[in-house]
Amino acid sequence: MGRYRWRRLRNAIIVTLSISATVLGVGWLVLILGALVFEGFGGLSLTVFTNVNSGPGGGGGLLNSIVGSLILTSLATLIGTPVGILAGTYMAEYGKSAKLTIVVRFINDILLSAPSILIGLFVSVIIVKPTSHFSGFAGALALALIVIPVVVRTTEDMLSLVPRELRESATALGLPGAYVIRHVCYRAARAGIITGVLLAVARISGETAPLLFTALNNNLFTVNLNDAFPSLPMAINQYYSSIYDDQKQLAWVGSLIISFAVLALSIIARALSSTRTSS
Amino acid sequence: MATPGGGKLERFLKPLKSERKKLVDVTLSGKVEALAVATSRTRILNRLRITDILFRQLARASAIGVLVILGGIIVTLIIGGSQAFWTFGFNFLVDETWSPASGREKFGALGAIYGTLVSSFIAMLFAVPISVLIAVFLTELCPLWLRRPIGIAIELLAGIPSIIYGIWGFFIFKPFMQATLQPALINTFENVPILSSVFEGPPYGTGLLTAGLILSIMVLPFITAISRDVFEAVPAVLKEAAYGVGCTTWEVVWHVVLPYARVGVIGGIMLGLGRALGETMAVTFIIGNNHRVHSSILAEGTTISATIAAEFGESTGLHQSSLVALGLILFAITFIVLAAARMLLSRLEKRVG
Predict the structure, then answer these.
(1) Which residue of A20, A171, B114, B182 is surrounded by the most CB atoms within 10 Å?
(2) How does residue B3 score in pLDDT terms, banded at 50, 70 and 90?
(3) pLDDT score of B281 more than 50
(4) Which stretches of chain A drop beneath a pLDDT of 70?
(5) Is the four-CA dihedral B218, B220, B223, B224 of positive or negative sign?
């Protein structure tokens, strides 16, 4: 009887612990989001979106940083997505069991979780240091290198889910391989591939480390990609340690904007992928 | 007949030749309409074949491009860091002096390596049990309607950019550590022999423990997500059989689920560790950027990535080379950890699939 009670007790302890762990995990999300809303919401106003930061103590907004982030993110996605989709296509369609595919899959998985600061370091050493000036191009390239592995992985996974019969029937109609891939397989895997791209965009739109020594930051409004380039994460990185309250406030507002943009993107991506699986 | 272009060109040309032969046949037959049809057919087939080959080669080149990226990173880091390795030799790994002041430049990576390993170790110490417990809750205890929302909340935690953790850690968590947790730890362990030097003050607020705790929140969703997935892959029959003979939930988890899912959970832990080791923005704000090796985990320290983030922008010469060499060390450590993680997880996929 004693042994039975001990087993019951031990089970109760573990159940309690795992419930508390879950409360802790979810609670932490609430704490972080709560702090963002609490500290950032007050500073959210139209001037944040319409004004360029006017220096310490002068108020202003984040217009240049927001526009900069949008440009950098789109450019990186534009560079990274085609390469990623093509590489994923090779792995899923052409070289399914080729040695190259096995190696690329392994390397890609490593790149997927490699420290992003090393990507920044790499781009900085090969582009920024030789040309001796920071540039938006270098920043976009660094972000593109982060997009590629994400897109490669989802493209390969999604194309592998396309039924073989679909390819076979298209081929039987006399369509050449590339045509089958582009007009049949891509269409079947479209939702999944778009999900992958959205997740990649969500990931890079908050990345800071790769921009530290590539695009750096710019307090002026600029669209010149050959110069130091503004972005929202770098603005936060610059303002958080400021002694001026209005700049600290801007750092919080920026954090709020990024977080909710990223969360919205990942929720859209999730919704997209779940409609695909349910239909 | 063999062209020097090799087999591929030959294969490409052969159908064209047969097409041309047909064209000649049609022409000889003297029917003009048939000629027009045949010519346009040849042209279309021709174009299709070219795009076919072009697309295939483009895809192949992109796949090779992924390898080139990694190769480029490795080569760049080795070349960039070689000056530091030549200058300091093996001492670079075991020396904690880090002095960029011109004239007496001396660099040793020990402080940064130590900080990286210790902060990641602290992170894993907290994140692993919590993540596994959350995964147990999600797969064994949670009512069905709550499973999805909690799962999504945990995954959202993974989506929050690291700089947000940095900001949050700097403005919210650091003051809490400084005012509450660190003084409490210092007072509690003041008179305990060994622990007193592990929890030695003063309470800066920043430091290795603060960084480790923030890192643990960051890697928690990664480990949870993978643990949950491998727990779900445990065949229901096994669990039902154990419940059937009267096991408690904990006994089912400990004796059935965990042994079955062990490899996957370890893979998830390694993946989380890889994240923790290389994390930059969340750590830079709150670790204190101090290259000394100190016995106390409350002391300010630094990590490899935090050092690079703080100093690389303006660095030149030997200083820059030393930072790149640090990057190479970080790359080597994370590569080994991530490669191990992938091997374990792919072994699992093979077993499940």
Answers:
(1) B182
(2) very low
(3) yes
(4) 1, 54-59, 275-279
(5) negative
Select from A26, A126, A129 the Cβ nearest to the Cβ of B150.
A26
Q: Is B214 on the interface with A (CB under 8 A)?
A: no
d(CA B299, CA B208): 6
Contact A221, A67 (CB under 8 A): yes
What SS3 state is found at A29?
helix
- Average pLDDT of chain A? 90
Interacting residues of A79 by C-beta distance below 8 A, sequence separation 6+:
A140, A141, A144, A147
d(CA B315, CA B155): 37
CA–CA separation, B341 vs B345, rounded Å?
Answer: 6
Chain A residues close to B279, C-beta within 8 Å: 115
Contact B120, B273 (CB under 8 A): yes
CB contact under 8 A, B278 and A94: no
Determine the Cα–Cα distance for residues A205 and A69; give it in Å rounded to an integer: 7
> Are the Cβ atoms of B134 and A15 closer than 8 angstroms?
no
Given a contact cutoff of 8 angstroms between Cβ atoms, the answer to whether A101 and A169 are in contact is: no
Its ipTM equals 0.91
Q: What angle do CA A165, A171, A177 make, to 5 degrees?
A: 115
Enumerate the residues of chain B whose CB falls inside 8 A of the CB of residue A154: none
Instruction: Tell me the pLDDT tens digit for each residue of B127-184.
Output: 999 999 999 999 999 898 999 889 888 888 888 999 999 999 999 999 999 999 999 9
Alpha carbon A120 to chain centroid, angstroms: 15
In percent, the amount of chain B with pLDDT more than 70 equals 88
Cβ contact, residue pair B312, A213, below 8 Å? yes
- Give 3-state DSSP helix, strand, coil % of chain A, rounded to 5: 80, 0, 20
Where b means 16+ CB within 10 Å and e means fewer, B59-78 reads bbebbbbbbebbebbeebbe
Give the separation between CA B95 and CA B113, rounded to whole angstroms. 10
Q: CA A254, CA B16: separation in Å to the nearest integer?
A: 61
pTM recorded for the entire structure = 0.89
Minimum distance, in Å, between the CA of residue A258 and any CA atom of chain B: 8
